[in-house]
Design goal:
9 helices, about 45% helix, alpha/beta, about 250 residues
């Protein structure tokens, strides 16, 4: 099983969150990129302000590693217009994949039309420019029933608005890794949560983000049917080194 090609190797901390300088943070992002090149990971997942620099760097290295970024991160409560503006800039900067945080708070409040609007418009923007689009639903903030309902809605909206040939490029993704839980509850992908997503996503692929810490975890997720794993400990999933405490 070639786990490396399932991995979106991730660094999303801001300098303020990490206690590093801007320069030190960029060094971290470039180290992540060098590691992704060396181990042939599928993608590096980074903040929007680094997309152009890292895309140019990968081109200079003749690498096939993709560049992904997060949109509306991490709360998901940005307006539709702000999400589209952020996504459009990332596209101009050369991004390959857009990981939007869906407005799960609006979903929980029953504002389905708003959530549908951002899904349709955000997905269309990505697909129009031949990008893969992923929708982070933040499963730690949702009940099992809400995970099932939101995933099923995304699948319904995809069928209503896009063609079957597009489905492989519209993911449902579990987590941001930045949601704060109580009582030690996991804030990333769990086997139980991912199974609910898989059971309700129809023909859409699923990405398990955060919480996958060992090669055995990764193999189990892949066997269950996920198509990508988001991780800040990509080497650990290949059996090299220990996984960090975070994403």
């Amino acid at each position: 099983m070639e786990i490396n090609q399932y991995l979106d190797s991730t660094y999303l901390k801001t300098p303020e969150q990490s206690g590093l300088t801007e320069e030190q943070t960029f060094d971290k992002v470039r180290e992540l990129t060098d590691e992704a090149i060396a181990y042939n990971f599928k993608e590096v997942m980074i903040r929007p302000n680094y997309v152009k620099l890292i895309k140019d760097y990968l081109i200079s290295k003749n690498s096939d590693v993709l560049v992904g970024t997060v949109i509306g991160f991490h709360e998901g409560t940005y307006s539709v217009e702000d999400k589209l503006k952020e996504a459009n800039q990332a596209i101009l900067d050369g991004v390959d994949e857009l990981d939007y945080v869906i407005n799960y708070e609006a979903f929980k409040a029953g504002e389905l039309e708003l959530v549908k609007k951002e899904f349709v418009e955000g997905t269309k923007l990505g697909l129009d420019f031949d990008k893969t689009v992923k929708w982070i639903i933040e499963i730690a903030a949702l009940s099992d029933a809400q995970i099932a309902n939101l995933t099923a809605n995304i699948w319904t909206w995809a069928q209503e608005n896009f063609e079957e040939k597009d489905f492989s490029r519209i993911f449902v993704k579990s987590s941001t890794g930045f949601y704060v839980t109580e009582g030690g509850k996991p804030n990333g992908a769990t086997f139980e949560g991912v199974k609910i997503m898989l059971d309700n996503a129809g023909k859409l692929p699923v990405k398990a983000a955060g919480g996958v810490k060992t090669p055995a975890d990764a193999e189990k997720m892949i066997t269950m049917g996920i198509q990508r794993i988001g991780t800040s400990s990509a080497k650990a999933l290949l059996g090299e080194g220990e996984a960090g405490a975070g994403y």
